[in-house]
Amino acid sequence: MPALAESPRSPVPGLSDHSPASQPIGAERWAWRRLRRRPFSIHGWRSVRHACSTVTCYTKARCWCWWLVGRSPMWMLPAPHPPDGVPVIDLGDCTLMPGLVDAHTHLAFDPHGPTEHQMVHDDDATVLGRMREHAARALRAGVTTVRDMGDRGYLGLRLRAEYAEDTSGPQVLAAAPPITRSGGHCWYLGGEADDTDQLVTAVQARADHGTDLLKIMATGGMSTSGSNAAAAQYTLDELRAVTRTAHDRDLPVSAHAHATRGITDAVAVGVDSIEHCTFMTADGVKLDPATVDAIAAAGIFVGCTVVRPRDGMPEEVLRTIAPYWENQAYLRRRGVRVVCCTDAGISPHKPHDILPSDVAYFASQVGTNAEALASVTSLAAQACRLGHRKGRVAVGYDADLLAVTGNPLIDINVMTQARAVFRAGKRVR
Which residues form the Amidohydrolase-related domain (predicted)? Predict the structure, then answer.
């Protein structure tokens, strides 16, 4: 073990050397605690590496591991036997893979409650308690990192600080209150800003608070009464001012955009990611191939929030589902970096542990099992600017792991059968 500890860049037999950066992006904003775990062994039967694109799974794996948490690396050494005295965790016939990354969730939202009423009337203690409950539920499902895309009163930052100190929840990235028009989509989260001066002030406030990204509602949404998802909420110049100011403060920009005009404007101003990317017009959902190619050329991530036909859904939503999935599949074929994510919390069909089920549906609509798994591990980590230490089982990466029964590369539905979850080297399930 001392020889391994000399350098996090030393290759380990049987694994690719994905050398980490010297420290995480934005590490100065994180209250890291350097935790050290005892070495332990995870036992199965035999070591078989499955790699396709950027997803790596170990099936029937036997390995022994030494976790160093925080800014320290993960060492993982496939071996027939661990050293004497190392505790053994026997998971049997399973697949060991990276912990999942949900790049679009709403921890403050109660899937079964009236969101607008709750976010206006619940006090901070109630909302924060709900966020903890939802975060714990996600973690037990194997989601070891979540990006919260809209809270109230910067409560996501409080949760981020809590889980930087312990492993009872996933690592949290927080956008804080999204910027929106007065009375616009998600106005009840407190992020209203209307003119350029107000927008710039709002961006600066989020940067001063230390948010991980900035989210702006470039268009209306489907879950806010009176909002028009097929219409833009801001002008091109207003979006440009927001993006320029955010990038000057090293904040990535995520644009919520259903409407085609909002999507094209977001691409024009150089946002980092587009959430939903539905291509809605007044006449329905209609793809714009030129804009798709521009998204691909710019390397913009698209957050594909999984939606399925459900009983009781409004007719206007049901009409968009089939063309939405056709568009997402086209985006992927054209080289767009499409990330599978949940939008958890927005409806009773969206509990916060839905990602393992959603990724299976994503695979059925958009790509192969391997591509779908990459979209909730390595690709999602890249979208969150954590690709240098999340989303892979590799030397130097965080010790966030998920073990599932069976092989998800063959049957992706086994993602819902979590056998064990490790967060920062500690077993939490």
Answer: 95-427
Q: Which of 167, 139, 154 is nearest to 33 (CA)?
A: 167
Residues 233-252 have pLDDT tens digits of: 999 999 999 999 999 999 99
Query: What DSSP string runs through 316-328?
Result: HHHHHHHHHHHHH
Do residues 362 and 266 both lie within one domain?
yes
CA 36, 17, 405, 81 dihedral sign is: negative
Structure tokens at 40: 């332990």
Length of the chain: 429
DSSP string, 191-218: -B--SHHHHHHHHHHHHHHT-S-EEEE-
Which two structure tokens, joined as six digits, stand for 86?
């190392």
Residue-number span of the structural domain to which 246 is assigned: 100-383
The number of folded domains in the chain is 2
Helices (H), 15-123: 115-121
User: Residue 279 is part of a domain; what is its CATH number?
Assistant: 3.20.20.140
Give the residue among 328, 349, 257, 335 at the shortest CA–CA distance from 299. Answer: 335
Sheet containing 418-423: give its strands across.
48-52, 55-59, 94-98, 401-405, 418-423, 426-427
Pair 118, 85 in one domain: no
In this structure, the answer to whether residues 56 and 191 fall within a common structural domain is: no
Q: Let me know whether 40 and 114 are in one domain.
A: no
Shared domain for 21 and 59, answered yes or no, is yes
